[in-house]
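thought: user wants a sequence for this fold. calling inverse folding tool.
action: design(structure=
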């Protein structure tokens, strides 16, 4: 029999982090376009399971499933982007770049952006600021060595972000974050240590919600028909065109690069490409547009 445990309510007002999200008044997309599309990929690879638990490195099923996204899926994902002339931003944990340097070269050869996604896909929420900074600096150094460029943006592994994360990124000179979910359009994140452009994302456009799963330490998976995803994402695209927002995706190559789902994505992107009122670009280009808009004193 369950005993009743008295729960004392805390009626004090909580103290929110000192972070300010400010929309850009009158924000508009370039050339009078109705909305923006940035196709973001989280190329977690082996860093997904290993970042969660180092012991996963010996789990052959989990590691092979993670590697599927890199070795099997990425070549056809890049071919799809090439065929449809769709720019993309690949958020790559630096360890995955170290392990698969040819993939990095292939992404860059096609003109796409490579952005920061931790070293081993660290979830930074609650981590001391100096440790967060160490993760950012180490992974940046590795990506600079592999790509010859400094990554300008980051998206949060496991959606783990706290005020320290945003402060550290601003202090290190990052241009943008792509993790927060309050607004529809690119906006400003102001911290005590500087500001960033925020490219808002949403769980609606995260394939993990429909197709995600893990194999380590025990198997679990969610799987929906690809057609469900196509319908949800097309609905969201239609809504964002109407309201002028950013359609920013979080796709994982090991999930979305499965053959059936990639055919669905080809169909979806083809439908979206047929709309001539849409701005397409990398996250970097979207952030630069927002920066220019903010600097011009808005409208
Ligand atoms: Zn990730």
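)
observation: tool returned 299 residues.
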């Amino acid at each position: 029999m369950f005993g009743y445990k008295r729960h004392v309510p805390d009626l004090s007002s909580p103290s929110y982090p000192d972070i300010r999200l400010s929309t850009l008044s009158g924000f508009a997309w370039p050339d009078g376009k109705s909305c923006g599309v940035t196709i973001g990929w989280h190329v977690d690879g082996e860093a997904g399971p290993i970042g969660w638990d180092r012991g996963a490195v010996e789990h052959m099923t989990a590691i092979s499933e993670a590697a599927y996204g890199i070795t099997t899926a990425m070549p056809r994902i890049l071919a799809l982007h090439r065929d449809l002339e769709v720019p993309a931003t690949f958020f790559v944990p630096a360890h995955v770049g170290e392990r698969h340097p040819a993939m990095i070269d292939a992404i860059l050869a096609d003109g796409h952006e490579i952005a920061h996604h931790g070293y081993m896909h660290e979830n930074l929420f609650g981590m001391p600021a100096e440790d967060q900074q160490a993760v950012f600096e180490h992974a940046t150094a590795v990506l600079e060595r592999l790509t010859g460029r400094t990554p300008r943006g980051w998206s949060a592994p496991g959606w783990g972000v706290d005020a320290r994360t945003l402060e550290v990124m601003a202090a290190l000179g990052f241009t943008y974050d792509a993790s927060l979910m309050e607004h529809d359009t690119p906006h400003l994140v102001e911290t005590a240590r500087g500001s960033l452009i925020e490219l808002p994302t949403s769980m609606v456009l995260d394939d993990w919600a429909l197709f995600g799963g893990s194999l380590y330490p025990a198997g679990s998976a969610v799987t929906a028909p690809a057609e469900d995803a196509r319908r949800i994402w097309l609905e969201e695209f239609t809504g964002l065109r109407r309201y002028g927002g950013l359609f920013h995706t979080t796709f994982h190559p090991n999930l979305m690069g499965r053959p059936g789902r990639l055919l669905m994505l080809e169909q979806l992107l083809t439908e979206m490409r047929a709309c001539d009122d849409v701005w397409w670009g990398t996250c970097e280009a979207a952030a630069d547009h927002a920066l220019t808009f903010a600097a011009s004193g808005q409208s």
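thought: summarizing for user.
answer: Here is the designed sequence. The pocket of zinc ion is lined by residues 42, 44, 117, 121, 157 (CB under 6 Å).
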